[in-house]
Amino acid sequence: xxxxxxxxxxxxxxxxxxxxxxxxxxxxxxxxxxxxxxxxxxxxxxxxxxxxxxxxxxxxxxxxxxxxxxxxxxxxxxxxxxxxxxxxxxxxxxxxxxxxxxxxxxxxxxxxxxxxxxxxxxxxxxxxxxxxxxxxxxxxxxxxxxxxxxxxxxxxxxxxxxxxxxxxxxxxxxxxxxxxxxxxxxxxxxxxxxxxxxxxxxxxxxxxxxxxxxxxxxxxxxxxxxxxxxxxxxxxxxxxxxxxxxxxxxxxxxxxxxxxxxxxxxxxxxxxxxxxxxxxxxxxxxxxxxxxxxxxxxxxxxxxxxxxxxxxxxxxxxxxxxxxxxxxxxxxxxxxxxxxxxxxxxxxxxxxxxxxxxxxxxxxxxxxxxxxxxxxxxxxxxxxxxxxxxxxxxxxxxxxxxxxxxxxxxxxxxxxxxxxxxx
Length: 423
What we know:
single chain; 423 residues; alpha+beta; Pseudouridine synthase; 4 domains; 11-stranded mixed β-sheet; two-stranded antiparallel sheet; disordered N terminus; pseudouridine synthase activity
């Protein structure tokens, strides 16, 4: 078909509005503003700009699936999920891969007096009796808890004596040996500037800030007298960058950090002050900002308008993830406890071992979309595609490549897999 002029309309009599419509009165323009506006390309095709089609985003679907799982008031789904994701079990302990958002205890809302009228969200304390019955033991105890917004290894014991033994052992590894027994994986918005490869001892306190409900972790350099008095907390930390993306406007990285402290707030605070906050972190992301290309720390200079919530992401990060700024508030914290080392004393005849937890689906998919490296591609193919080939080729001259089409087909396979998961 011959190419039509830009001002020529194939559908004569349609209610389109030209861009240079200055001769009409303002009243006429207002009367026509409620109608649908069309624009014409050089080929003469008519497209409706007001009509928006829903685009399937697998990452948002996986996040919604996880949120529905952890916010359900029926314990059946969470019970089956934990049993399917059991990592390790012997005569003393049992370990699970906890999903992000699953609470340890039930915290009733403060603005409602009669909490019995509210459907209680399933929590670990409420599941322990039934979980112990399913595992054929009398009772279960939490030996190594994990924060609600984080995912990863959760260790329970089958007796109270062994719980006290493990907790004393973890404390001994921290105080005497400074052994890094916890290993965490984090997906960061940016690349950390200062990430020690060797073990470093950090001191921190809890301080209360304006517009923040709970006290936050603040690193400090205390004097020798303060250290001897025990008025400051400490931990040992080391880390490495697994993969990173140096693309301008979309810098991101996958970081692995090893610590001796059970506090989950040390890692987000440290990475945020290293100008690489964790994706989905709503508590510590404001610590460091970039002003006109210069990185600045605003720990003691909270803006007068308050701390922005939720986390503000750059356009490059949002484009790679395929989401909008309004979706950021629903993102989980991409901080995962991937491994815990169980180390016994030297005089004990038991062998040391390590409990590992695989990365969740949301972590793997977000990592692939942000970093687009070969390792992330292989992990995604192994987890989702089941052997389907997955390519990523940058588009040439603004066109769509076979790699992008293959990625869309691969995403459809993920949607079908998640819809039938745990059914």
